[in-house]
Amino acid sequence: MKVVKPAKLNKGDIIGLISPASSPDDLTRIERAVKYFESVGYRVKPGKHLGKYHGYLAGTDEERLEDLHDMFGDKNVKAVICLRGGYGSPRLLGKISYKIISKNPKIFVGYSDITSLQMAFLARCGLVTFAGPMAAVDFHSSVEKYTEEIFWRMVTSDKAPGDFTPDEGRETIFHGDKDTEGRIIGGNLALFSASAGTPYLPSLKNKIVLTEDIGEPPYRIDRLLNQLMLLKGWDRVNGLIAGVFSDSEEPDKEKRTLTAEEVFTDYFGRLNVPFVTNFPHGHIKRNHTIPFGINIKISPKKKRIRFLESAVI
Fold first, then answer.
1. Theoretical Cys-Cys bridge with 120: which of 10, 90, 200, 224, CB 3.0 to 4.6 Å?
2. Residue ranges of the chain whose pLDDT lies below 50
3. Catalytic (active site) residue 283
4. Which entry of 63, 148, 212, 216 is annotated as an active-site residue?
5. Cβ atoms within 10 A of the Cβ of 281, count?
6. Residue 2: how many CB atoms within 10 A of its CB?
7. Active site residue 175
8. Per residue in 42-55, pLDDT tens?
9. Which of 19, 23, 89, 112 is catalytic?
10. Does 112 participate in catalysis according to the annotation?
């Protein structure tokens, strides 16, 4: 896979805001996010159709697509940050001009539903993107310091980030004996699985796959992981990371169930590769930004994940 890294962000650069999935219920979050970015030294360009509603979508497919193309086509915009996830990104995959993305590589940030776009950009353009904080979710009020510090380090420094900083309030669990390396891909489990078998999912061979999700009880996590297990190349991955699966408990307390941790251990353990669970990434406030497409190394015995290269140039 030929990987393309975007240019790092410098103070005074323009950040574009788009909403390729859903709009926030509270549109004042957009204004507050703009004020935040301006307060830390950046200029902001809101998308033309920002704040629109079309049912559960942030405008029609054509409107959301126009904002995406405009931001990537604008040479003055150095980073594109999504407002939120929700639903709608997969509807754009077959309509995007990947030539525009390829000719204008730039920082692209989001998570959850945005996974679809991130994996498509990596598969079709080789673009490194960032599963990180979103404007109307994380940047509209006081930003969690852990999240803020790691995010800005990832997008403004052309130095390798080095070892991941553990979240003091969360125990990350390492499994396996041998070290492993590979380019990290993945994102939201439901969205990643939905791209299986399409041209918009990168090859799994020699990759380290990260997953996270919200509101999926263990039996549905099981179903999604089973779908990946049946996918060509799943048995060729070099390692796996499970982020935080928020609200994943079985709602019926009387129902027999496995735990999410048991499901991960079952599916991940079958591959006989190192894997990590409870990594601080997902639908959480203290969220570790992940640059999809760069090489990382998992060292289970040292309980360490190392980012081996920069995500920007």
1. 200
2. none
3. yes
4. 212
5. 25
6. 5
7. no
8. 999 999 999 999 99
9. 112
10. yes
